[in-house]
Amino acid sequence: MPTLVAGIDSSTQSCKVVIRDAHTGELVRTGSAKHPEGTEVAPAAWWDALLEAITAAGGLDDVAAASIGGQQHGMVALDAQGAVIRDALLWNDTRSADAAAELIDEYGGGTDGAAAWTAMTGSVPVASLTVTKLRWLADAEPENAGRVAAVALPHDWLTWKLSGSTELDELATDRSDASGTGYFDTAAGSYRYDLLARALRITEDAARGIILPRVCGPAEQVGSGDAARGWGHLLLGPGAGDNAAAALGLGMSTGDVAISIGTSGVVSAVSPRPIQDPSGMVTGFADATGEFLPLAVTLNGSRVLDGAAKMLGVDHAGLAELALAAQPGANGLTLVPYLEGERTPNLPHATGSFVGLTLASMNPQDVARAAVEGLLCGLADGLEAMTSQGVPVESITLIGGAARSAAVQQIAPAILGREVSVPAPGEYVADGAARQAAWVLSGEAKPPAWSTVETQTITGTPTPEVRQAYAARRGLIAEKH
Hints:
Blueprint: E1 4-10, E2 14-21, E3 27-34, E4 40-41, H1 43-56, E5 63-70, E6 76-78, E7 88-89, H2 97-105, H3 110-121, H4 130-140, H5 142-146, E8 150-152, H6 154-163, E9 172-174, H7 175-178, E10 184-185, E11 190-191, H8 193-200, H9 204-208, E12 214-216, E13 223-224, E14 235-236, E15 240-241, H10 242-250, E16 256-261, E17 265-269, E18 283-286, E19 292-298, H11 302-312, H12 316-325, E20 334-336, E21 353-355, H13 364-388, E22 395-399, H14 406-416, E23 420-423, H15 428-442, E24 455-458, H16 464-480
Parallel strand pairs: 1-5, 5-14, 5-15, 9-12, 16-22
Antiparallel strand pairs: 1-2, 2-3, 4-7, 6-8, 10-11, 13-14, 16-17, 17-19, 18-19, 20-21, 23-24
Helix pairs in contact: 2-4, 4-8, 10-15, 11-13, 12-13, 12-14, 13-14, 13-16
Binding site for substrate: 72-73
Domain Carbohydrate kinase FGGY C-terminal: 258-439
Function: Catalyzes the phosphorylation of D-xylulose to D-xylulose 5-phosphate.
């Protein structure tokens, strides 16, 4: 009988569970369940979905260890009894945009404030980060803010629930997820209680009384499963933020870049050194192995294609067919896809725009092409920001739901100016969590060397003129906001 491990991906839209052989990585079974829509969600819905997904995956009775990869940044505020104080604000909830601007202003504003935050945490506050959501809570809901006894992130809270613990001091996390809070010094590997205090408008002494999850090593056992549910045999790993888990699942190392197009668009790269970018384009996060994982993140990912397909009355295959029937540049039509505001660049109140619409481009093929090119141009900006920070780029892997689009695959090399590798569709966040669980179980110095993901390489002729047109028109939108 093989030794089995479970990897869990609690993402924005759903929960996925994969059960794999701890030694070979072979997939044994899977399960999934949907999450409710919205940017404000009751954490209990994540727990219900996790239980449903575990059941669909055949349970955990024969599983030796588990880890959770989760959506980053969300605010789970707990009271002294461990109860959730209010619905969690997710990473894509932009109501804390003004709070982010205030926090930057309080350290000098503008480039000075941004540089100060980058030096302290590795990232410039934007609405996605937990620190800005806590400031929003302090100002908008001071009674709730006054009840805060602990602050967790989605994956921290779910690991805690999986353990069956009710003790707040048993909350645990890892460097990758902690580095996305805005009150964790990624380079030093420690919490900044002064920044937590500033966010909640309390004293630093009071902030030190608030429990933050213990930051564990990448293969450290953080507890065991809930014995009351028959999971007492289950070792629990520290988990990771979703992008760090995906990097572990893909086996990324220095020089490897992943472009993930899910609900958000993410450009991530493994770096041996911390990255500090005061422009805010690149956030200096940690990875799940002890190194660093700089990210450039857009709010608008696969839903750009969802919206375009709905507008044109086609499915995703139909949208790809239309886009590939058009010429590069879409007859001069550009979509700047800030449909839900934007994080990179930081324009939380922006809206999307079609620019350059003419009679020649007013057709389904060019509209579809502009949607795909606009999505990819935003990610190309993130890649360029990475290279400007000295992050090495030797290979690019395209993952996520939208990476399955034939149009995205074929147009990406032209927009990015580099060949891309597209692995077979998979649940790479859950796979990374499973690999971490196997690492915890083994007690070895390095994660298990599971078989390499099979990929296809796609090349194309670069189209810099498309990027240039996008940059000019993106600038017009930025000037208005």
